[in-house]
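Recall that a protein's primary structure is simply its ordered list of amino acids. Everything else, from secondary elements to tertiary packing, is in principle encoded there. The following example makes that idea concrete.
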Amino acid sequence: MPPASIYALHGFLGSGKSTLARRLEHEVPALRLSSDDWMVQLFGPDPPEEVFRSGLARVSALIRLQAERVLSLGVSVVLDEGYWTRASRDELRSWAASLNGGLGVPLFLYAVTVPEAEARARIERRNHEPGALFVSQATFSAFLPTFEALQPDEPRPVSSRADLS
């Protein structure tokens, strides 16, 4: 059996992270852990901002705990979270390196990008799907300045994908 690995997705809202995550969970195979899915299950499709912010931090911590357990059982994970900031990606790399008794777990980072207009259109379509986490255009605009693309000095992603529908 190949060693368990972490497949993490970096990209902004509507970039196609979840589409790629669903593909990877079958191709690898792996357990897909999606912060959007957990948020909807725990807080509903359109939680108020104060619930969203604190809830997302709690969901991310729970996902990390589940991922650690699954990896310890020898099963790979797909982390569908976004890793919008350099700090979050650095922390992800550090966490992966600390697993397996300090020997580390292989980490594969995928960067998923599309033009802003396409991302906005995808969000609008997704907002009408049952069970989707609602993201208004105002929320999209408010979050956009918080997104930090991969920096030149960061380890390169496994793949940069912009071809997802």
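The CA atoms of residues 43 and 55 lie 8 Å apart. The mean pLDDT is 92.
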